[in-house]
Amino acid sequence: MSIFPVSPEKERALLERMRRLGVREEEIEEGFIRSSGPGGQRINKASTCVRLRHRPSGVSVKCMEARSRALNRYIARRRLVDRIEEIRRGRESAAEQERERIRRRKRRRSRRAKERMLEAKRRRAAVKAARGPVGADGQ
Fold first, then answer.
1. Integer Cα distance of 122 and 117 in angstroms
2. What is the per-residue burial (b if ≥16 Cβ within 10 Å, else e) of 19-54?
3. Beta-ladder partners of 31
4. What sign does the CA torsion over 77, 78, 84, 88 have?
5. What is the pLDDT along the chain (139 residues), one digit of tens a residue?
């Protein structure tokens, strides 16, 4: 019997990640809150937002992505495991690698690279200027 409304493979993968990181179900404190956002009257009656807290590490997550409480429970557990893994792995985590990639992209160019880029822009501008005005000679 499946605990979450996802495929057995996804559920197995999540439980395997939890086991590998040493996160046990008994260590997770689960609570339900009323969600916010669009959804009509039903959203004001059903507590579909899931809040999880991993007691040993103190990491806590909230999920109100789906309208179903069961699916939110799965997504919240996945986020909790992601966050714990990120904390434990540090620099080698996927999120940290993404931040580093953005940092490298924003880094200042060297003087030589900047000169080459500006020269390429000047050449392109000259090509465009040689075209002449559009529609001026009856075209």
1. 9
2. eebebeeeebeeeeeebeeeeeeebeeeebbbbbbb
3. 51
4. positive
5. 578 889 999 999 999 999 999 999 999 999 999 887 776 776 677 888 999 999 999 999 999 998 889 999 999 999 999 999 888 877 677 778 888 899 988 888 788 999 999 999 999 999 999 997 766 665 5
Check: CB of residue 76 under 8 Å from CB of residue 63.
yes
DSSP 15-53: HHHHHHHT--GGGEEEEEE---SS-THHHHH---EEEEE
Pair of tokens at residue 72: 């939110």
